[in-house]
Amino acid sequence: MTNAWGDIKHADLVVVMGGNAAEAHPCGFKWVVEAKAHRGAKLIVVDPRFTRTASVADFYCPIRPGSDIAFLGGVINYLLSNDKIQKDYVKAYTNATFLVKPEFGWSEGLFTGYNEEKRDYDRSSWDYQMDEQGFARVDETMTDPRSVFQLMKQHFAIYTPELVERVCGSPRDKFLKVCEMISECSSPTKTMTSMYALGWTQHSKGAQNIRGMAMVQLLLGNIGVRGGGMNALRGHSNIQGLTDLGLLSNMLPGYLNLPTEKEKDFGTYMSTRGFKPLRPGQTSFWQNYKKFFVSFQKSMWGDRATAENDWAYDWLPKLDVTYDVLRTFELMNQGKVTGYFCQGFNPLMTFPNRGKITAGLAKLKWLVTMDPLDTETSRFWENHGEFNDVKTADIQTEVFQLPTSCFAEDEGSIVNSGRWLQWHNAAVSPPAEARSDVFIMAGLHLRLKELYLKEGGAFPDPIVNLRWPYAQPEEPSAEELAKEMNGQALSDVFDPTDPTKVLVQKGKQVDTFAQLRDDGSTASFCWIYAGCFTEAGNQTSRRDTYDPGDTGLAPRWAWAWPVNRRILYNRASSDVSGKPWDESRKLVWWSGERWTGYDVPDYGPTVKPEQAVGPFIMNPEGVARLFTRGMMRDGPFPSHYEPFESPVANVINPKIRGNPAARIFKADLEALGSPDQFPYVGTSYRLTEHFHQWTKHVWVNAALQPEFFVEISEELAKEKGIEKGGWVRVWSNRGSLKAKAVVTKRIKPLMVDGRPVHVVGIPQHWGFIGKTKKGHNPNSLTPFVGDANIETPEYKAFLVNIEPTSAPAVA
Amino acid sequence: MAIEIERRPLIVERTEVKRYSASARVNHWITAICFVLLTLSGLALFHPSLFFLTDLFGGGANTRAFHPWIGVVLVASFSVLFVRFWRLNLWNRDDTRWMTQIGDVVKGEEEHLPELGKYNAGQKMVFWGTSLLLIVLLASGLVIWDQYFHGLVSINVNRLAALTHSLAAIGAILIIIVHIYAGIWVKGTVRAMTQGRVTGGWAWRHHRKWLRSEVKDEGDH
Amino acid sequence: MASYQSLDIKRRSASTSTPPTVRSTGLEVAKLIDVSKCIGCKACQSACLEWNNLKEEVGVNTGVYDNPHDLTPNSWTLMRFSEWDNPDNGNFEWLIRKDGCMHCADPGCLKACPSPGAIVQYTNGIVDFVSENCIGCAYCVKGCPFNIPRISQVDRKAYKCTLCSDRVSVGMGPACAKACPTAAIMFGTKEDMKDQAAQRIVDLKSRGFANAGLYDPQGVGGTHVMYVLHHLDKPEIYAGLPKDPQISPLVSAWKGGAKLLALGAIAFAAVGAFFHHTIVGPNRVTDTDEANAADLAEEANGAEPTPETRTL
Questions:
Q1: Which CATH code of 3.40.50.150, 3.30.360.10, 3.40.50.620, 3.30.70.20 fits the domain covering C6-246?
Q2: Which of A516, A618, C301, C311 could lock onto A291 through a cystine, CB 3.0 to 4.6 A?
């Protein structure tokens, strides 16, 4: 989220697309209800199904799963061709004025530089024209045909209402109504907020879906303002924390990168991370990268990380490829994985192509599961009739099931969608032998360390040298870990403008990442968390509802990263001169001497407006990127691609299957189904009654939604002779499942490219363990392919077939 | 008449007619006891001011539980009574005449009435009235017997059944009041059901045709 | 199912005594369910089960989202989902209504209940079942115009929403209202809830729902659970919410006229009999009757009767 949950109440228009906030985020959705009730806000829902969110919406427009970019492209085209953009904002705060290299282009659905064999682009042409001083060239009039603005206009011109209707199946009049409602928010005094979730991320072009709406929001001037923003609704209560702490195979905490094989030494690694400003005078905050990186290394290895050993750079693993979950299970299937730690998730019931997951797990020598609940993954070897049809005798994997404590049984902070770190205490003790994840991981580390010390080994250094300063080494406390993430001064830290002035004394907690240094005098495990646990105490446990200006930001409630800032890019809430765009919704403004307001300014506090420093201080351009240069693998502008399994060919270029830059393994490509065998579009989602597969263990939730089902339209039911509440078999080219049929008016066939497309909705909450009736999950069917940039699997659009059947045999 | 009184006292006392067999009497009294229990329990649940009667049955819940079962026993018992007596209760011309002279009946001036068989029209009406109401009570009672017949009919039929059941019960109670009072008023009647016999005079006075046929039957032996 | 002080009881089932009036009655409470804000998340159902320590059985899917499929002795509230095509504008609407006891001002259940004090109405308007007095007759089911009470087949007691009378008695709102994430369930004085509803109706009308309104049916004297409906003119589209609910005339007849009629008729019959006896006197068999009978017997036997042995 760029904004905060409580800020949604200031929106004039809420667009829920790529998500189902009422269903999946009912508590947060209260702010939408608040905006409607007290601000007269309108709510638009664009979704393949008439969802619970749609049930309280002012306007609903259907869309075919996986066609969001065409829809959003249509919106962008509408805004540009009807001049419904906030021009001053676009001109000053985005790269619309920047000029792009003449080589860059787009044709036949592909950008310049595509290599079909590698399924990848040479992205060198996707960049700005540079002047002699190395600054990007701009055209303030935005009329230059090479300006981002003109290129954008040209790129999206094909997304006419006709094309949108043809691709998305959204009736033209409904699409145009949505455009009209959105376009009203181009006024500086009207804002729209975008709420999305896995409905956008779980596609082979998920990141570009989000980019599409981000561009709309930038064109409307809705980023950095109250009641606006791009608001990702995070699914797990602490999934934001997971991302912040870099729990992805290619990341380090605080969105630093793990080095690749090519970056053999620290110098090479840093050479591409200079982040030189691309326009004169811009902040380009990532110029501080080295300070954050060195502080991280000091946090990891303390005194052992020195200037001489390049801050222990060699002790970091170097990636050959990214080890996302899809690749890991691919490798498992190839027999290249010996053991697997499965901590706090349930791949058997969630990762795509369940057959492949089972086969992979069966090839492991050992599997460790750490979970508060009895997961299906821990029992993947157990036969449960049609619900887990495996031959137990053939599986030799040794499974170690370690029960862990759950969120209510330990203390610590949880990061919400709005980046707020909120501390909680343990409510109860964990049952029986369940122990905290920290206890298990610490025990593992200490034992490994002992073995390395005793027996040596190929490369003991990173482990034996790891800093481990905890009072109880076998179970570091949540407070100690929080303090470590915040960071501290390892020696006195001096004011750079006055070297005699000590900013932070040795051994004290730092107050902000501005105090971090690249000379080894500071340690901070996650620089963006610097400030969360200072000498003033644990900021995340604050519970003061003080809320000046009724902003809903409550600055003294918990703590938000970075530096307790609640709305990112908030400088953009004021015009170039520093005056709020909307006086009634002002946020941060120039007082004449400094930047002030209700939030911590995302800006140099005393940088004068006339210095023309852009509000997007993290970017070397100082402005937001409508054109993302080479930062995304699949294009600098979003472009419509069909899902890998689609009922229709890509109307722009029928030869392109899926996202041309998305990785797909050979066997998985072969396992894709075609529309003649699998004519219906499958899509997966969650229900309010359950949280993933956790709550099927809870009696109350099980009673409220007891049994696995799929949802289909009345038309499809009639065509197939399926009865409401009857059993159906749904199958894809990868697997098959049985479910009860919910026949509903909420799903209607869509007219796509001249023919009806039926959608089969498949919720995902069941399994063969728990209080609910035994059931399947959509992952029995879904394709093994992910987003081109971050490898999130394509759960939201795939092909299936369906027929009535009999009840499954229960083991 | 005075002369006659002096002449035949002993003989008069010894004349008796058998009216009910032992099994018929048992049958009747089972039915009667059930009816009384049903009346008590039914009224207890019917009118708040009579709710105290539930104490006779061990409280409200027990009253609610027992009442329908007693009803089942009554219906079963009455069914046997019905089989026993239905022929004797068929209507005839004398009954119609009896009805037209109801004033004489009420005044007890039976000498003006036609000779009657085993049952007079009033008794027949008690019989048929009770039979009919019992069918109604059974049908409506089953419908509102929630424990076993929940959801058998729609809620409105259920409500109608409750109303019908109570109205039918009132009807039955009134009939039984008449029945009991008739037994009390017409002296010498109760012994028919307690001992099985009535005096010849009682039969002569109230059911002379029946007496004649009884006498004739005896003579034919 | 908490019992208040008797001073707080306004009405008591099957009781003829006058309720206490010395205490100033205070305010009536109400729960306002804004259907237009409800997202059907079932948090209210969950909160109801949790707060009241009820255990609903894990059922099956029957092709709809409603689970359990109906109110039960364990589920005192239930989300009912209705799919409706609006014929006026062609829009599809998914109407989600939280069903449960309406806490009528004139409660049919209380009227029908034969057991003294098994159903009470508090001065704040809450209609509560007092289980210890419940005899399990299901008359409340017949009395209710909203089809709410359910009889447990386990203990033969009637159950329904208590409006969390236990919570309300200590100044808290009902558990469902507390759990509702969108404040679609609100709780307060009836007057405040009506004001709240009025604001919501203005908002709904501004969004094109010309027939938006407050469901507070007067046929049962108004209710202490009210709905804000987008289509007040068609309450039946919300899973059969009755348009003009009132206590069935059959129940009124049963619990009103029939009672008087019955006792009157019985008393009349008894008194009538007494006076008949008093006036007419007993209907005795005369000696003549006996003699005639004896003569008849003799004739039949064709012999001089022997009094000692004559039997028929």
A1: 3.30.70.20
A2: A516
